[in-house]
Amino acid sequence: MSETHFRYGRKRFYDNIKFPRGFAKSGDFTLAEEELLIQFGDTMLALELGELTPDNSEEKHFMKVLANPLKAKSKLERTWLKYTQLARGRKRFHTLNGSRRGSVVDTSDEFDAVLEDE
After folding, report:
1. pTM of the predicted model as reported, rounded to 2 decimal places
2. Which Pfam families is this protein grouped with (predicted)?
3. Is residue 108 in some structural domain?
4. How far apart are the first and last CA of the chain?
5. What is the mean pLDDT of the segment spanning 21-30?
6. What is the DSSP letter of 101?
7. How many distinct structural domains can be found in the chain?
8. Average pLDDT over every residue of 9-21
9. Looking at the domain assignment, is residue 4 inside a domain?
10. What is the secondary structure of 77-97 as a DSSP string?
């Protein structure tokens, strides 16, 4: 982390809405990723929103990564992409049922047939 030329954030970065207990306690981030987000997240968000302009080559590359995520090469860039996917992407919901359709059986046709016979 010390070899980065990325600017530290003006303040520590937290997302109390999507990760109210912290990034690492969510189970989605490692302790190292949490530290990267806390230290540099404010700067990365400001760059993404256009509130800051890139000062060095690393920040300019980060801007390119935002446009094309496949160009991510540093741990910082990959961590930010992971954060944005988890915070802004659709939440996956896993069920115990393997089919997409519900297991409710429609018996209204059978019931109508029984009523017509009577």
Report:
1. 0.70
2. DUF413
3. no
4. 80
5. 86
6. S
7. 1
8. 90
9. yes
10. HHHHHHHHHHHHSPPP---S-
3-state helix, strand, coil in the chain (%, to 5): 50, 0, 50
Considering the domain boundaries, does residue 1 fall inside one? yes
DSSP assignment, residue 44? Answer: H
Largest CA distance in the chain: 84
User: CA angle at residue 38 from 2 to 60, to 5 degrees?
Assistant: 60
Give the CA-trace dihedral at 92, 32, 51, 47, to 10 degrees: -80
Decide if 81 is inside a domain.
yes
DSSP state of 10: S
pLDDT 10s digits, 73-99? 999 999 999 999 888 876 666 567 665
Distance CA 86, CA 105 (A): 36
Rounded Cα distance, 108 and 81, in Å: 49
